[in-house]
Design brief:
elongated; 0% strand; mainly alpha; 174 residues
Length: 174
């Protein structure tokens, strides 16, 4: 299936695309996946995507993933979403990330999120961020959080914050 042109793939029905096996999905290139419209992406079991395929999906393709598909992604798959595409996730989808998925978010992904997007993360997701991911936070990101969200940061995360980040957190918490 990896040898099919994007034109040939476009001739498949959404039903046919939905019947692709995990092995067949793995055979698709990111270019082929990016050529699919929303209905095709919706028909694919996103859990079948490799991390390489996820990393190659453009912002439109990431945006075409449903909340159910996002929820089915492994932590490794979430961590492989390109930072240039991470903002294609809705605030609802970001809020639905599990703590395991959130723990895979990278510093680049966190840094690429808008303040509104970042503030949609739940307290469980915030407390799951790695100390490396914390480096991607801006002071505006921290300031946009609720007090409850600010209290979710662990001692280890706070120790990993820059002085400016820590000051923003202290200001938030009053």
């Amino acid at each position: 299936i990896g040898k099919l042109s994007t034109t040939a793939l476009a001739d498949l029905s959404t039903t046919q695309v939905g019947e692709l096996t995990a092995t067949q999905v793995h055979g698709l290139t990111s270019t082929q996946l990016n050529a699919f419209d929303a209905s095709y992406i919706d028909a694919i079991d996103a859990g079948s995507f490799s991390t390489t395929q996820i990393a190659g999906l453009d912002a439109t393709s990431i945006g075409n993933l449903t909340s159910t598909q996002i929820g089915a992604l492994s932590a490794a798959q979430v961590g492989s979403i390109a930072s240039s595409s991470i903002n294609s996730l809705t605030t609802t989808e970001l809020a639905a990330l599990t703590s395991t998925q959130a723990s895979a978010l990278t510093s680049a992904q966190i840094g690429a999120l808008t303040t509104t997007s970042f503030s949609s993360l739940t307290t469980d997701s915030l407390s799951a961020l790695t100390t490396t991911a914390i480096a991607g936070l801006t002071t505006a990101d921290i300031a946009a959080l609720t007090t409850t969200q600010g209290l979710a940061f662990t001692t280890t995360q706070i120790h990993a914050m820059s002085v400016d980040q820590a000051v923003a957190l202290v200001t938030l918490l009053g």
